[in-house]
Amino acid sequence: MSAEATNPEARPEARPELRRRGRTRLDLRRLGRAALLGPTSRDRLPDAIGHVAEAHRAHHPDADLSLLRRAYVLAESSHRGQMRKSGEPYITHPLAVTLILAELGAETTTLTASLLHDTVEDTEVTLDQVRAEFGDEVAFIVDGVTKVEKIDYGAAAEPETFRKMLVATGNDVRVMSIKLADRLHNMRTLGVMRPEKQARIAKVTRDVLIPLAERLGVQALKTELEDLVFAILHPEEYEQTRALIAAHAGEGDPLPAIADSVRGVLREAGIAAEVVVRPRHFVSVHRISRTRGELRGSDFGRVLVLVGENADCYAVLGELHTCFTPVVSEFKDFVAAPKFNLYQSLHTAVATPEGYVAEVIVRTRQMHRVAEAGVVALGNPYATAPADPGSPADTSDCDEERVDPTRPGWLSRLLDWQQSAPDPDTFWSVLRAELAQDREITVFRADGGTPGTISLPAGASCIDAAYAQYGEAAHGCIGARVNGRLTSLASRLSDGDTVQLLLAHDASSGPAADWLEHAKTPAARIAIGSWLQAHPDSANPTTTPARAPLSVVGARGGGGNAVADLPDATVRLAGCCTPVPPDAVAGFVVRGGAVTVHRIHCAYVAQMRALGRTSVAVHWRATADCRVTLLAESFGRPHLLADLTEAIAREGVEVVSATVEPPVEQRVRHTYTLQLPDATGLPALMRAMRDVPGVYDVRRA
């Protein structure tokens, strides 16, 4: 049984300063007495859920409460006789969880499932009975939050429960909403548990539930969970922070006066807005005290401005930055670029004439609702608009996997890699590591594929993008272009980058062992690790001495068809820029009386002039043949040198010399000095070399 309770006054987390303003705290004893009275007549709502109905109607005035009544009757009768460790009737727990969700604006189906969320796990009620009475959606959600049997899974029961819950959340995010509210109420009433069990539950809450609340955007639950965990795991720092807040409460708070000034500024500008002061919660105060040192009065809260439309947000921002001194480094625009958890707001900070710096958050009322409740505020993800007349009826099979429009990218990644996790311990450790990533980036696919974007955790590399796009086919990835530039697979990606991933033609290609050092996503790490385990010889290749560049040298010429206006002088074409007709060129006399010919834009031209070298006029002979040096860059593969020289020969070009450097990160660099019969054939030659499979760039030296 999941009953965990205590006297609310026995723990510091029950103190008034930790409660969120405006949140009703349940009188468990009163509810317990009301619950024990049993169901009321069918024509009115039971007294025990009157507070739930009131909170629900505040968000959904037209909600049908009959479903809640039926759910309460079933929950109360099935839990009757069960008690929490505090001595309260067990029904007070699902009631408290349901109230939390009702205050966040959850719709009726979520509240119904919340009332029933422990019935299948802790009573004789079966899932089939729930389905028959309340329908498939309620049954699906209840099943999603039901723990797996410890007798079947033993020590793996907890990770397997979370695995099951995540899979269910991938089809319906309301499953995780109920789990978060359930954990919040259990954390509020954790005081009667043994200290070691309190610490264990708090650590799981910190490592898994709080990151999930953050990613689902349910800030109202996340902040209170953080404070409750803080009180249990760090009692000394918690007491220091509590004392700091208590000391501030006895001093003059400048934020109300700053809020009044903001109201006056917006009133004069004709902008309708609600301005309130939002005190920081305990963990937030603790964090800023560690970064800022001694705190001032304006550091203990923030000013929140609520407006009606998106455009009003920027109008408010303009007035604030005009009438106060803005702190430019503190400005962040999450309206134009929302966070990955749906959060939208404008953040800024302004300095007042009195010398205080106040943080200001500007958002619409709808943004505020989503910022507090996250996915809970989105309502039923399966509610559909009425079909247009004449449109075909939906004949999809109701048993097919649900597609939740609110499923974010991080959740899709979790669902993908959890299937490959070989055992519960791996799943549990990798889940915690994945949830520790607190920011997400979006990169764009250069190939125009669907979907056109890839969501990755911040700090992800091209390797992560490859496995996110191609799955196990990414084993053959040999390079990438980021924003059009060739880069190594280890390169880290930034938000908004465009990525083109290059795969080897050789099906036997596989990842290198050092890929694990650069892979950040669990999907990539698990796939790479599995491949290396299946190919142990590839994981530890034998060390071979570095090879010297391979060179093929033919007869070298001097000045080609360049002629210097200096009788009997030896003419040489500079190897740094390899000029060819009809390049504009300049000649300079060097030691020995020879004339070196450079392209006019070569960097060495300026150096020659700075050194005082004698400049000599140079022109091209009427003959069209020329000599040029080309650099070809490619991915390593068998027979590449043969294919390149064959392509050169097909163009009727003579190879004067060729150098092939040893591969570096599966890339090979070739340098060719070529004698062309006609300079006008150079573009065609370079195109032919680029067309050789594996070659990604050909340019003049």
Biggest sheet layout:
6 strands, mixed
Relative helix content: 40-55%
Helix vs. strand class: alpha+beta
Question: How many β strands by DSSP?
Answer: 22
Point out poorly predicted stretches: 3-26, 31-43, 384-406, 541-548, 550-557
Shape call = elongated
Overall pLDDT metric: 79
Strand content: 15-25%
Distance between the termini: 75 Å
How much is the radius of gyration in Å? 35 Å
Task: Supply the number of helical segments.
Answer: 27
Describe the overall structure.
41% of the residues lie in helices and 16% in strands. The protein has 701 residues and is of the alpha+beta class. The strands form five sheets. Strands 1, 2, 3, 4, 5 and 6 form a six-stranded mixed beta sheet that branches. A five-stranded mixed beta sheet has the order 8-7-11-9-10. Strand 9 (477-482) and strand 10 form a beta hairpin. The N and C termini lie far apart (75 Å). Mean pLDDT is 79; it is low at 3-26, 31-43, 384-406, 541-548 and 550-557.
